[in-house]
Amino acid sequence: MFYSIRLALCGRRGLPLLGLALLLAISGRADDGTKPADKAAEVSRLMAEARALQKQYRESAALARYEQVLGQHPRYYEALWRAAVLSANIGSRYTDESRRGAYFTSARQYADRAYAVNPQGGEANYAVAFTLAQRAILLNATQRLEIYKQMKPYAWRAVEYSPRLADAWQMLGRWHYRVAHLNLVERAYFRVFLGGRPTGASNTQAMAALRKARELDPRRIQFCYDLARVYENQGLRQEAIAVLEQAAALPTVTSEDLENSRKCAKLLHQLNRGQNSDVAAR
Questions:
Q1: Enclosing H/E stretch for 108
Q2: What is the three-state SS of 49-101?
Q3: At what angle do helices 77-92 and 59-72 cross, to 10 degrees?
């Protein structure tokens, strides 16, 4: 009976604070003697701190708070999917493969747990797709192709279930672009060993998804760079230049922002130089 009540309280979006308080009330005092209301308040405080630290780009400190929450409440949905994404982000910055691999392993475990708690949560599906993509960094070329096939259902469901999640749209856009540009060898590998390549990928869908990501979060320089690269590849030079010029006006807060801003500036310079050369040749 208790398990059924717990599932009913979790719902589609995971376990809310009210559900947490009710569960603790049903089960009586916590094992450590803490009153249920006090424990719920502590979890709420830790979650608020974690979100605030994330907004300040203090990712390691935010991850530590989410892990504290999970130490008390292992099935707390938001803490799980956010811990997955943060672990993958932090791990990607390490050059040491053992440390990077350890973070990626933790990220995948958190993502799988979030998905188990709420398989219809867009955030959980995004977390699984994202951690798969990050793990691909450590794999060889053929293993990465298998990752692209595994990612598809999660990337598509992420935007279906959470259409306001900008990062999910970026993930889907990147997936479309990469799969749409498989070379002959990669296509042959998919056909022979993986039962055929993933269907539905296209440059048109890649551009649409990346435009949606920018619409939802217009201050993300990385979204600008991704979209401009696809535009450039498709011969849409003016569209790419317009996006890159908008990116130049965006503030750079993190080291990743600064790096993406430099990439945008370099690409804009190349496109403008090419445009000037075309004009001079006429």
A1: helix 97-117
A2: HHHHHHHCCCHHHHHHHHHHHHHHCCCCHHHHHHHHHHHHHHHHCCCCHHHHH
A3: 140
Tokens encoding 254: 């993190």
Q: What percent of the chain has pLDDT over 70?
A: 85
Distance CA 210, CA 178 (A): 13
3-class DSSP state for residue 246? helix
∠ CA 87-91-97 to the nearest 5 degrees?
140
Would you place residue 7 in the very low, low, confident or very high pLDDT band (cuts 50, 70, 90)?
Answer: very low
Instruction: List the structure tokens of 119.
Output: 């398989």
**pLDDT for 250-271, tens place per residue?**
999 999 999 999 999 999 999 9
The answer to whether 122 touches 157, Cβ cutoff 8 Å, is yes
pLDDT at 8 over 90: no
Q: Which of the four pLDDT bands, split at 50, 70 and 90, describes residue 37?
A: confident
